[in-house]
Amino acid sequence: MKKIVFLFLFCFLMIACKKDSVDATNTKTLQSSINDMASSLNTLKQVKFSEALYILKTFGVEADGDVNELNALGKLIDGKKVPEIFALADQVAQKNGIDWSSTGPPSLGEMNIFGNEMAKESDPNDISASSLNIITKPMAVDSVLGPKSLQIVPRLVDSSGNSIVIEGEALETVLEVFSNGRRILTSKNLMLDNNFKGFNMRFAALPAEKISNNQIDITVSVKTTKKTFKMSKIGVTVNPKALLMPSGNPANNPTNVTADVATIPDEGVTTTETPAAATADPKTSVSKFLNNLSSKNLKGAYETSENPSWGSYETFSNPTSGFGAVKNINVKNITTNSVSSNNASVNATYDVIDKNGQTTSLLVTFGLKNINGEWKISSYKIN
């Protein structure tokens, strides 16, 4: 009887000593606590738990090398329990566009964040490929700004250049962007099948001051069980109009303070306001145009122009392809280039914030014509 009681107490103490939350004091306690947590789950949940940890280690932390990634992961999940780790992995997967959820079926295979020494016989990530190809394609082409992003799609190929069939794998794929030898962007994704769309690199994520000669170098690596394939494209041209520009200080820009927003008189009301003389500074019309756009007075902005290329007001104000997509404008500088009795040229430097919150810095040359004593915008050129 005493032996039975002793065995019962021993088993009880063993169960009680198992940890139900992460202990990231060091790598040993991290692995031990994770093993304890996994042992309390059924087989399916154990696989999903391993996948969640892999998602967090690969996409949830910023570090170079497995050891540093593991240390960063420990800090991220220290003290967390299984449900909290699943919830965090769901957030990271959604943020990075990974087709994974903690409630879905196993999709990444057996993932060991502490490293696999060798490929298993049935390891789906043990891919036989010859090399890696990269396909690039400009995307989100705007009628004014041009392309706003670049689609970068890697493909594993055989010795004949044919794509390797990817099905049931989860290959860690890393994009690195350099300019003049300096790394300016890193992004990660998972290649799950041949429909893998790679990376959609927004030019607005690239700081203009770090780009040399409007060109970047792209390096993509795909990690299989036995080998990491790497491919680079050198001298890829970017769209300078869509790059991330340093923002200006509105307080130092007098046009943001003193420029008047044009008002539209009601129909049937006669106004006695005298039109501006043709000898007035044409940059006043440009200032009104930009401030009207910033205040979403698209009708007022349209009426400061006589530009055939903008077409009708409906075309001009279109929320997708026209100025209707503008949320706000921060004017940095407006200068008059030249002026005659009938024509003028004005340069304006300003930041455009669109409805998605994306900021683009522009240098625009406005052409103006004297129409009935008023300067009207007749042309618009992004430099």
What does this structure look like?
Helix 3 crosses helix 5 (82-95). A hairpin with a 2-residue loop joins strand 10 and strand 11 (374-382). This protein folds into three domains: 18-114, no CATH class; 131-239, Immunoglobulin-like, CATH 2.60.40; 250-263 and 275-382, NTF2-like, domain 1 (Nuclear Transport Factor 2, Chain: A), CATH 3.10.450. The protein contains nine helices and eleven strands. It starts with a helix and ends with a strand. Helix content is 25%, strand content 31%. It has helices spanning 2-17, 27-39, 43-59, 66-77, 82-95, 255-258, 283-294, 298-302, 313-316, and strands at residues 131-142, 146-157, 167-179, 182-193, 199-202, 215-223, 228-237, 326-339, 343-354, 359-371, 374-382. It is α+β, with helices and mostly antiparallel strands and 383 residues long. It has a four-stranded antiparallel sheet, with no helix packed on it. The chain has a four-stranded antiparallel sheet with strand order 8-9-10-11, covered by helices on one side. The protein has a three-stranded antiparallel sheet with strand order 1-2-5, with no helix packed on it.
